[in-house]
Write a structure and sequence with these properties.
The chain is built from six helices and four strands; from the N terminus they run H-E-E-H-H-E-H-E-H-H. By secondary structure, the protein is mainly alpha-helical. The protein has one domain. Helix 1 packs antiparallel against helix 3. The radius of gyration is 17 Å and the shape is globular. The termini are far apart.
Length: about 220
């Protein structure tokens, strides 16, 4: 059974869709150039696809509760996220792991894309599909999510809203490098969920561009 929509959620969704359409129109030439650079400088497709854990629309049944109709609680609906490929094909094994800042699997072009967070641009199409909003907690890989969900209190609370391309944690802190970074970001994700509003989304969107250009978190 789904939760009733929170007041303002529909307006926030409209804002995110309109913003995604505008950004796709503005960034289309850049995305075409990036796709060509990725294809020409390393073997493999321009777009990388990966399963991620999305929103959990089930009504809460208490902490750690499982849907009785499921043998495995994935934490939310699994969807396919789109990114520009930043790693060599075959550079990542079957295990789901974080990529370190100086990860040798990352291509030279991929390193630039990650520095400016341009590898995330294809996720604008995830927004249009309804998998994500522009603003929200970042979606995690299922295996990593399962481990963090078991070892971190309130981690699953992040799944109460659609995941996002950017968020309060992303404009405040750099890429994750260890579990301490994850805990700090989860705290900010939960703060965002408590205080979310159309105005907050617009503010985070406005802060995202300086973060991308300056290649650091917004303090």
């Amino acid at each position: 059974m789904q939760r009733p929509p929170r007041a303002g959620d529909r307006l926030r969704r409209v804002i995110n869709i309109v913003a995604a359409l505008v950004l796709i129109a503005l960034a289309a030439p850049l995305m075409l150039v990036i796709a060509l650079l990725v294809r020409l400088t390393s073997k493999g497709p321009a777009i990388y696809k990966q399963p991620r854990v999305g929103v959990d629309r089930r009504r809460d049944r208490g902490a750690g509760s499982l849907n009785p109709h499921r043998d495995l609680d994935r934490g939310g609906r699994i969807f396919t996220i789109y990114k520009f490929r930043t790693m060599h094909v075959g550079g990542s094994d079957t295990r789901q792991t974080w990529a370190a800042e100086n990860d040798p699997r990352i291509t030279p072009v991929g390193r630039i894309l990650r520095s400016f967070r341009l590898d995330e641009l294809p996720q604008l199409f995830n927004v249009l599909k309804g998998d994500m909003n522009i603003v929200g907690p970042r979606p995690e890989q299922p295996e990593i999510f399962a481990g963090l969900g078991q070892g971190m209190t309130h981690y699953r609370t992040r799944q109460r809203v659609l995941p996002g391309i950017t968020g309060l944690a992303q404009v405040s802190l750099p890429y994750d490098s260890d579990i301490r970074d994850v805990r700090r970001k989860v705290e900010l994700d939960l703060q965002y969920i408590r205080n979310r509003s159309p105005g907050e989304d617009l503010l985070i969107m406005a802060k995202t561009m300086p973060v991308m250009m300056l290649r650091k978190g917004w303090k």
